[in-house]
Design brief:
Keywords: Activator, DNA-binding, Transcription, Transcription regulation. The protein is an alpha+beta fold and about 150 residues long. Helix content is about 35%, strand content about 20%.
Length: about 150
């Protein structure tokens, strides 16, 4: 079971992943060893899956953000598996979600520009077995982007 102190630790870590154990313990009003024990338990229980640096897509020439709806030819296990396997291989595809509704998958991609996306669409996405159609939504303004879960 997770208590409020565990939630506080997780909230702080989501915002400041590189915080020292000493500072985290101070902000949670506990000893460093107790804080380290709680963090170890949270990792062992799978609440903390890992740590990562958040990079600036503009500085890394990946500022073009696009969402793509994908409709498959058939909704069978083999087509789902082929599509999923193909998507996992592509670093441009940051997220892929199977959804209920008028299409089968929603993709989130980062690219340098529209030219790169068009090339990706024609040479990669349209060539994945089972893809019947796609609908593209280019992002004009990223109003909010967060990785923090509301805990």
């Amino acid at each position: 079971m997770m208590d409020e102190l565990d939630r506080k630790i997780l909230r702080i870590l989501q915002e400041e992943g590189r915080i020292t154990n000493q500072e985290l313990a101070t902000r949670c009003a506990m000893s460093p060893s107790a804080c380290l024990d709680r963090m170890r338990r949270l990792k062992e229980r799978g609440f903390i899956r890992g740590y990562a640096a958040l990079l600036d897509p503009v500085l890394l020439n990946q500022s073009f953000l696009v969402f793509v709806e994908v409709v498959l030819e058939r909704t069978t296990g083999d087509i789902f598996r082929q599509f999923s396997d193909s998507v996992r291989m592509r670093p441009e595809i940051m997220e892929c979600h199977m959804v209920a509704g008028g299409f089968d998958y929603l993709l989130k991609l980062r690219m340098p520009d529209m030219i790169a996306y068009r090339r990706f669409l024609v040479e990669v996405l349209a060539e994945i077995p089972g893809v019947r159609e796609t609908r593209t939504y280019a992002v004009m303004d990223e109003v909010k982007s967060s990785f923090a879960l509301p805990i």
